[in-house]
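Journal club prep, notes for RB
We'll compare a predicted complex against what the paper describes. Inputs for the zinc ion case:
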Amino acid sequence: MIQAKAINHIGIAVKSIAAHRDFYEKTLGARWEGEETVAEQKVKVGFLLVGPDGHEVRLELLEPTAPDSPISGFIEKKGEGLHHVAYTVDNIQQRLDALKASGLKLIDEKPRTGAHHTQIAFLHPKASCGVLTELCQPAAH
Ligand code: ZN
């Protein structure tokens, strides 16, 4: 069992963060938190927060920065929209080892560095009815 502590964020694939930011800010009232480019993933990420301080949920708008970005491939196949749901976990490597041992399909057997210096890993969407699942271990403070 992964023992997810919370939903860490929801990832949404977009062609352009600038084109969609207004909807989240002006229609939903989400708070813009900033932008970060994750060069390794060829993606620019825009962060928005929804909900009261201390209980907010983060949205990640994912914009490809190159035609061979994984997000470009996703948008080509499925169009813009829900890309993944991320769950907060601790001991991410142990969680991955245990899942692998249980026979669950993983995309990442080793965690990689995500935005905000998190350690992240994806489970295969076949393991979770088509919704890509991300495990996310926050950076140690
Ligand atoms: Zn994510």
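Talking point for the session: The longest helix spans residues 17-27.
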